[in-house]
Design goal:
Blueprint: H1 3-8, H2 11-29, E1 34-35, H3 37-44, H4 48-56, E2 68-69, H5 70-80, E3 87-92, H6 96-102, H7 106-109, E4 112-119, E5 128-129, E6 132-136, H8 140-147, E7 151-154, H9 158-169, E8 175-178, E9 191-194, H10 197-234
Parallel strand pairs: 3-4, 3-7, 4-6, 7-8, 8-9
Antiparallel strand pairs: 1-2, 5-6
Helix pairs in contact: 2-5, 3-4
The structure holds 1,4-dihydronicotinamide adenine dinucleotide.
The site of 1,4-dihydronicotinamide adenine dinucleotide (NAI) has 26 residues, from α6, β4 and α9.
Length: 236
């Protein structure tokens, strides 16, 4: 796939790809060989045409009348997501969040290996937390460059996040998964993905609200219907 093609793909499509990857992975584990856009759509809650449109962004995977070969599509989606190679990661900030992330075993099973954590607190440096060694921040550049680390996770307080980002900018790091609630500035060749759990919580709150409104609307409508029925029954 040409580089300029990758750039044209919308973020909305990219954000849907992990869902395809997960679903195809399950199909593969269940020895399913082929799947139609309709079936994929049903499993994911998308329309068949949405599935076709999404996957057409990356080339001609499907065959008319046959659908998609599950294994081939799974491998292609994994390749597009950059999951065909192992990624080495470090966590900066070995506090509550850093430790929780270090304890999350699924990263490694998906090819994301956490090799080290860094902190400025001398009570944490020198420890191994969930099997991951904690080093002093001073060793960050050395460890990254020596071990070909490509992803750094920022889990320090927001006041210190830019300082950490500046150190990372001088290393071979390719991407930053930033949990600190601040927009960090880095050179354009370093990709940044900000994570805001609170946004997700707001979305949930919105959905709950929307659902309540829908339920109220349905109740009102069925009440109106009952009244109408009563009136009709009373008519001679
Ligand atoms: P915490 O206070 O438990 O841990 C922060 C750790 O960073 C401490 O161990 C501290 O010694 C270390 N630290 C401070 N400055 C440092 C530096 N310059 N270099 C290396 N280590 C340094 O805080 P917690 O709860 O783990 O949160 C960490 C960050 O993650 C905060 O910015 C918080 O706002 C953010 N956060 C974001 C979430 C999200 O959804 N994006 C969810 C939870 C936390």
């Amino acid at each position: 796939m040409a580089e300029e093609e990758i750039k044209k793909i919308s973020l909305a499509v990219i954000r849907r790809l992990p869902k395809y990857h997960k679903c195809l992975g399950e199909l593969l584990r269940n020895n399913v060989e082929k799947v139609s856009s309709q079936e994929l759509g049903q499993m994911l809650g998308f329309t068949a045409s949405q599935v076709r449109q999404d996957l057409n962004n990356f080339g001609e995977f499907g065959q008319q009348g046959y659908g998609y070969n599950v294994e081939q599509l799974y491998n292609e989606v994994a390749k597009i997501l950059g999951l065909h190679t192992e990624h080495k990661m470090v966590i900066i900030g070995a506090g509550n969040l850093g430790q929780a992330l270090a304890n999350y075993k699924d990263f490694e099973s998906h090819g994301f290996k956490i090799i080290a954590m860094f902190d400025i607190n001398p009570r944490l440096t020198g420890l191994r937390i969930h099997g991951v060694p904690v080093y002093d921040l001073e060793e960050l550049s050395y460890v990254i460059n020596e071990n070909n680390v490509d992803i750094a996770i920022i889990a320090v307080p927001k006041e210190n996040a830019q300082q950490v980002a500046d150190i990372l900018s001088g290393t071979i790091i390719k991407g930053i998964w930033n949990f600190a609630p601040i927009e960090i500035k880095v050179p354009p060749h370093i990709m940044v993905e900000n994570v805001h759990l609170i946004d997700s919580l707001f979305t949930l709150s919105y959905k709950i609200n929307e659902n309540k409104l829908m339920e109220r609307l349905i109740k009102q409508k069925s009440k109106r219907f009952e009244v109408k029925e009563k009136i009709i029954k009373k008519l001679p």
